Amino acid sequence: MSYKILENGRVQSKGFAMLSKDAKFTPFDFTRHALGQKDILIKILYAGICHSDIHTARSEWGEATYPCVPGHEIAGEVVAVGEKVSQFKVGDYAGVGCMVNSCGECEACKQSQEQFCQRGQTIFTYNSKDIFHGGENTYGGYSNNIVVSENFAIKVPQNAPLEKVAPLLCAGITTYSPLKFSKVKEGFKVGVAGFGGLGVMAVKYALKMGASVSVFARNEKKKEEALKMGVTGFYTSTNMADIAERFDLILSTIPTFYDVSAYLDLLKFGGEFAIVGLPPHDTMPSLSVKDLVYKAGKKVYGSLIGGIKETQEMMDFSLKHAIYPETELIKPSQIDEAYEKLTNGTAKFRYVIDMRNLE
Ligand code: NDP
Ligand code: ZN
User: Fold this and answer.
1) Which ligand is closest in space to the CA of residue 198?
2) Which atom belonging to ligand 1 lies closest to the Cα atom of 257?
3) Which CATH number does 172-302 carry?
4) Which of 5, 122, 313, 333 has the fewest Cβ atoms surrounding its Cβ within 10 A?
């Protein structure tokens, strides 16, 4: 058996944690809550590294709870199911993204917008107080297993390339959702600012939806990859004022300080600027009311992951059209190095941690 249930019903787990904001990752043994009637136990096979993991683990968004086990791009195999589980069976593949529970009863939850649970009961996959399980801190996917309500698990077919599926659970849905919200279609001009883990997914989805797509990056390092994907414009933040192209939608995935207002100039009248990138609190960019008024006729909105129903829709869409992230598989011992590369500008796209051998 690939898992161990303790006498009190809790599940034995093993993962990698940061013990303080400046620490390195260290092996960490812990337990997860017992398998409830509607819960499934997933043996984690792959876990993507999202920049949100870095923001959180380094307390860039406010003080995290330590030990901190990040990871909300989880793909694995169901190894046990609660007695009332109806949508999964042992042996199925499943994915878990940024949330593991919510009240299920408010208007937002009923509309499958669980990330906006009106009772404030969205339980995030890590660094979140799980009020449904005695208020314990949640631990994420840099680990060998996870227990989750079946209502928060995404179905993944047996023939799916699991390593590539993992990043869809956050990078996929977080970019798919605003592109759908902005009703991207044939003939749209879409700009994607920040060409990393999320940016690549935004580019691929927007192209599939029929848009012509341009990328905004801070240098030309990944220009060739972008052109190969079918991108028609590639701009760097040094030549923003010279850009003549005007966009229906610009989606920002930028995780650092930047000039938000400069992007408004690049929108058509009625164009939209959608923000998903969330820089550290102490270097958070802002947008002045003056700029909004003088650069009028543009719409600015933020977007937070996506609901479970839409996440399943994104998964099905991605698999149907073979839209996958660009991934590099790493060992758990390389997580610190990956974090370094993702912050010093030497990373390519998505690192995925191989958890298959973590018994
Ligand atoms: P990555 O580190 O994979 O990618 C970020 C990319 O942005 C890199 O390619 C980086 O370039 C580029 N970049 C950095 N600064 C600039 C700049 N000033 N101008 C243009 N490009 C820039 O991060 P992720 O894609 O994983 O995440 C991106 C952001 O989205 C993070 O802040 C994350 O927390 C947030 N996020 C938000 C979610 C939501 O629901 N709203 C969900 C998931 C993530 P370089 O290659 O040079 O480093
Ligand atoms: Zn994420």
Assistant:
1) 1
2) 18
3) 3.40.50.720
4) 333
